[in-house]
Amino acid sequence: MAWRIGVDIGGTFTDVALVEENTGRIGVAKVPTTPDDFGRGVLDGLHSVMDKYAIAAKDVSLLAHATTIVTNAILEEKGADAALIMTRGFRDILELRRSARPDLYDLFLDGPHILVPRRNRLEITERIGADGSVVTPLEESEISDLVDAIKARDVKSIAVSLMFSFLNPDHERRLGAALREAFPDLPVYLSSEVLPEIREFERTSTTAICAYVGPILASYLARLEDTVRGIGLPPIYVMGSNGGVFEAAEGVSMPAMAVESGPAAGVVATSLIANQTGKRDILSFDMGGTTAKASLIRDGNYETTPEYEVGGGASGNRWMNGTGHPIRVPVIDLAEVSAGGGSIAWVDRAGSLRVGPASAGATPGPVCYQRGGTEPTVTDCNLLLGYLDQKSLLGGELEISVTAAEQAITEKLAGPLGVDARSAAAAVIDVVNHAMAEALKIVSVQRGYDPRGFVLAAFGGAGPLHATALADELAMDEVLCPPIPGAFSALGLVGTDLKRDYVRTFFQTTDKTDPDALAAAFDELEALGTEMLERAGVTAERRRFERSIDARYVRQSYELGVPVGAPPFTPETVDAIAGAFHERHRQTYGHANDTEPVQIVNVRLAARGRIPIIFDHDCRE
User: What's the pTM?
Assistant: First the structure.
């Protein structure tokens, strides 16, 4: 008997789900998250589920993990001290950013705190031109001075982002080789390896973030792997933001892949449910302890986007650009709001009721948990209104107090608002439902989809409580709640694939594109993907490659993704790519110009190692 285990760290609880490979039997366990040491909560969850279902470590065939360690390091600005080396004259790219602003009328809005301070941003003489030619040779005599400067700063990692290195990486590779020789114990991240893609700000930001969070993630995974191997469990796979898992070593080489690790697992699980139930068009709604996440499943598949910002206000407002740090890695397209069971309700100085963004989290938690919480939360309001068992949660494992919840709501909300406690609690639920409905509209209406044609899948510890109200607001006819909603994201961890995304800039309009050159670009990426899958021990019959392009009309600033089949390509193939882009543009924006040339900006390839679906059974605990 072999089991697969998924562990998902949430803001309040760490969820563990397991599936027996032969029968599809499902089991779950929940333990409090341990913010002071997330690894301890993971270990507590593993011991809990293995004891509960009498599972021996030797019978575990897969251990997958969704972690918030990368996102938290950025949000809390607790990453590693990193050095960033740039082309001379471009030291302040991270400061200059883009001109995008989330609020046109806020004249005092600042960008997020720069993760690599100016004293750690160094320069070297060199220049690659916009055509990939060498304008100024790399001044290798300056490298020794750079090495001395880095030693004096006692940094924990190094990032290198030189101009146009995505077209010609020679200077970056030579500089990187010298730095890796001089600092064998420090990770060195080259932008030509991390993100060989056009746009110097986004490429530099992504590379700098890898250096900022890389040592933190590497240390966390190393400690966790030592712990789980110590009890006989297999190596850990980490959930990536693109909806696939990757080996720990892959994550250390590209830490940005672990951003939005947890929310991605829930969307993957929803995609599996869509295919198993035949409800192939689904709005995924995941409401946990601190946030609510929304995503869209179309014809059984989720979509990813390369446009993502983390930090600042971006994590709470996924659809707003200009507030956070750009990371150009594929992320499942979702909207996230600060509306979870632990979100704190409060009355501002103007007498208006607010919910979030602060959360009671795992410590101290909602007032009703009786762990020291004093601020009323969404969970406390649901409890007072009778939507939760008024004696205990988690099947009797967590005793709660409705009296404590009512007292906090009365003192902090009902009194200032001049209403009774139940009216105040109902108002909190209305406010939080409206915020979550807006997130659902972001991934549906603003993407060109009518939510009335979709099924609402609600999960997370609080999702099903709010599902019917949200469906009513969006005029949706059907709600789907999985049998284990509180641990549904953890279940998605054991039903996904090994996955890594690769990208290269390919700057041609379709009317001038050489089909053989386009095929060669994809072949180069496939070689990288094949190498990764071979390292992971994935056999040839389980390998899959998904190809797409980023395309736009000439003079547009941003692109849309278009799926592409496998080579060989012909002129007719290129024409079909242009036609597919026109249709995607029409569906997204309501119009298209079929006569205008289409510009291919990037080619992308997702390399997958297929993991067979094992819970295709109506058999669960």
Answer: 0.80
